[in-house]
Each structure stands twice: as structure tokens, then as C-alpha cells.
């Protein structure tokens, strides 16, 4: 392949060599930590916490190592609750990514209540507690 062909292919794939390569989107993978798990998807992501779940409703874009996206938070409850998620709450998921480590804070936007701040590692399994 010619040099111009390689450059065109690299540009089309969004991979261009430069001195300061900055991550702008997260790859579709899993992140895990104590009390949390995150699966990155093309449209955002799914979050699992102790006795709760969340959905990130927009792609996670990284700017200067930080992200700030909107989604929904679902409080869990013990016992059989069926397959439907109930009482979604609007939430903001914001944080920082440095290499394989992420810190994410989840805040309910309607009440400004902080669900928590979590440390995650790329490829780690989540360590969450299920409500019974």
C-alpha cells in the first residue's frame, strides 16, 4: 500500500500519529471496581452498582482526560420485581480516565444527590452486592 493510501486509511480510522495522542472516546469494553461495573456501548453504557443500575444515554467522549454524560439511575430493591426497570431518575455520570483507571461520580440531576464516587479499572470484574 502506498504512503498516501496508508495515510488515508489511518485518517479514516481516526488513527493519526502525533506527539500527543489523546484518548477521545472509550473503547467498547468493561470496567469494574468495588461496588460498580460499567460496560461501554456504542450508544453510551450500562452501569451496575450495589442494589441499583444505571444507563448512560450518550456516547462517552473524553476531553483532556475527563467526561460528563447524562443517563438514568434505577434504585434496586430486594425480592422479585419482574423484568421492568421502575422509577428511573435522571443522572449525570462524570469523571476522569487515565490509562486503565477511571474515577466516576454519579449524581441525580433532579435532586443534586450524589449516588457515589467510584474507582474502576479497565477489564476488571465488578464487585457488586445483589439485593435479595
List the helices and strands and how they pair.
Elements: H1 3-12, E1 30-33, E2 36-41, E3 44-49, E4 52-56, E5 66-75, E6 89-98, E7 101-108, E8 114-122
Antiparallel strand pairs: 1-2, 1-8, 2-3, 3-4, 4-5, 5-6, 6-7, 7-8
General description of the model:
With 132 residues, the chain is mainly beta. It has one domain. The protein contains one helix and eight strands. An eight-stranded antiparallel beta barrel has the order 1-2-3-4-5-6-7-8. The radius of gyration is 18 Å and the shape is globular. The model is unreliable at 2-23 (pLDDT under 50).
One letter per element, helices H and strands E, the order comes to: HEEEEEEEE
Distance between the termini: 59 Å
Helix percentage range: under 10%
β-strand number: 8
Shape: globular
Structural class: mainly beta
Overview in brief:
8% of the residues lie in helices and 44% in strands. It has 132 residues and is mostly beta strands.
Task: Name the features.
1 helix; 132 residues; mainly beta; 8 strands; disordered N terminus
